[in-house]
């Protein structure tokens, strides 16, 4: 189906056929959900051994009684788990609660209101504060910026990561820009892995940016490979050391999609200077994190080999779901002008771009047919996708047959919205 080459008569015929298919889906009264990238119940069950794993032994390797207060940095063995996830030294790690998003918000709040170096370094002292947001991207990042009144500036994602020519030009020209959001491996939602060159150029931004610039490096999917011999992300830490910009990057990760999503452990990796600023802030709002949960995780995932073996179990459950999505898209849209999508080999999402002006209508049609999708525009700051194209598909929670059923509806809705848009024009 090539809409740009179709006659009005062909379009009307396609519209009639597609509407008949769509009416059939309406009659089925489906209730399927592809909205959020959460682990399925099967995936959560992979970590049920966490329950009872301590067997009454709450003492950490360094003698810490994990039931008590204190330990702002986290247990040494928990720091090592974070180091395994982020590819850094344990001394670079601070350990938090179950949510890396909480840590991101806390670090951004500290940088904005109080400064990570001293009070003079607080972003708020400089008037308007801006952040670069590669798009499409992660909606929760935008919420953090919006909460703090930080202006968001869109930069397009490419197959290698953010458009670095655009990023560098913006950072050079606008000193109100205090950072950039990055999901460097299996980017949410495109699934792109940043190239070595992109990682190096991001590490060098600290040399051309204004004072107190920070890269928020959200490596949420660093070990979430779906294939063997998966792409390897270059080390941002090594790159910053080459450029002498180590203070410009703060890394984040968690076990949220590794163990129990609502009861995991989160990590921030930062230079000594950044750690000092973060700990000064945290010391005012906590007596210490949940160390009992930290030690549970370190006994469940005692080393990197155990971590990677555990992730292969996740991949075995996720792969058929992703294959169902990608097979449906290829079968319906290969050789057409109806859409574009990445073919991720890890992470939790598939990003689909409709023809211009068709995403919202596709999502509306799907919802009426009983298939819930992330709202069109959610992958852009302020919920505004200027071209109304991007839709994020999250196949992890439904069963494989449910994903297959949902994608049949999705495909028909994309086609129907596209044909009607073309007829209207």
TrEMBL record:
Protein name: Aminotransferase class I/II-fold pyridoxal phosphate-dependent enzyme
Lineage of origin: Bacteria, Pseudomonadati, Pseudomonadota, Gammaproteobacteria, Cellvibrionales
CDD domains xrefs: AAT_like
The UniProt record lists the keyword Transcription: no
InterPro entries per UniProt: AspAT_Ic (IPR024551), PyrdxlP-dep_Trfase (IPR015424), PyrdxlP-dep_Trfase_major (IPR015421), PyrdxlP-dep_Trfase_small (IPR015422)
Superkingdom as given in the UniProt entry: Bacteria
GO terms, molecular function: L-aspartate:2-oxoglutarate aminotransferase activity
Assigned keywords, A-Z: Aminotransferase, Transferase
């Amino acid at each position: 189906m090539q809409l740009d080459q179709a006659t009005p008569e062909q379009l009307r015929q396609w519209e009639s056929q597609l509407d008949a298919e769509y009416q059939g889906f309406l009659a089925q009264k489906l209730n399927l959900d592809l909205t959020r990238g959460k682990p399925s119940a099967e995936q959560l069950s992979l970590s049920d051994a966490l329950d009872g794993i301590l067997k009454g032994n709450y003492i950490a390797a360094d003698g810490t009684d994990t039931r008590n207060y204190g330990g702002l940095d986290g247990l040494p063995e928990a720091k090592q788990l974070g180091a395994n996830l982020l590819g850094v030294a344990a001394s670079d790690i601070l350990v938090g609660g179950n949510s890396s998003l909480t840590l991101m918000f806390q670090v951004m709040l500290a940088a904005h209101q109080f400064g990570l170096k001293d009070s003079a370094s607080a972003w708020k002292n400089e008037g308007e504060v801006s952040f670069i947001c590669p798009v499409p991207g992660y909606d929760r990042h935008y919420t953090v910026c919006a909460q703090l009144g930080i202006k968001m500036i869109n930069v397009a994602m490419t197959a290698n990561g953010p458009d670095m020519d655009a990023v560098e030009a913006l950072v050079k020209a606008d000193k109100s820009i205090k950072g950039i959001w990055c999901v460097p491996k299996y980017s949410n939602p495109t699934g792109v892995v940043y190239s070595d060159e992109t990682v190096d150029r991001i590490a060098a931004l600290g040399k051309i940016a204004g004072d107190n610039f920070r890269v928020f490096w959200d490596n949420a999917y660093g070990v979430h490979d779906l294939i063997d011999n998966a792409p390897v992300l270059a080390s941002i830490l090594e790159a910053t050391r080459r450029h002498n910009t180590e203070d410009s990057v703060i890394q984040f990760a968690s076990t949220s999609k590794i163990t129990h999503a609502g009861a995991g452990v989160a990590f921030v990796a930062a230079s000594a200077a950044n750690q000092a600023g973060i700990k000064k802030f945290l010391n005012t709002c906590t007596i210490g994190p949940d160390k009992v949960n930290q030690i549970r995780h370190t006994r469940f995932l005692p080393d990197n080999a155990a971590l990677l073996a555990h992730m292969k179990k996740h991949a075995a459950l996720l792969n058929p779901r992703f294959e169902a999505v990608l097979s449906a898209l290829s079968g319906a849209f290969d050789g057409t002008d109806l859409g574009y999508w990445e073919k991720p080999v890890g992470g939790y999402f598939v990003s689909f771009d409709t023809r211009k002006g068709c995403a919202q209508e596709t999502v509306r049609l799907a919802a009426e047919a009983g298939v819930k999708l992330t709202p069109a525009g959610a992958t852009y700051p302020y919920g505004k996708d200027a071209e109304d194209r991007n839709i994020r598909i999250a196949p992890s929670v439904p069963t494989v047959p449910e994903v297959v059923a949902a994608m049949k509806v999705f495909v028909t809705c994309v086609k129907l919205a596209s044909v009607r848009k073309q007829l209207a024009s």
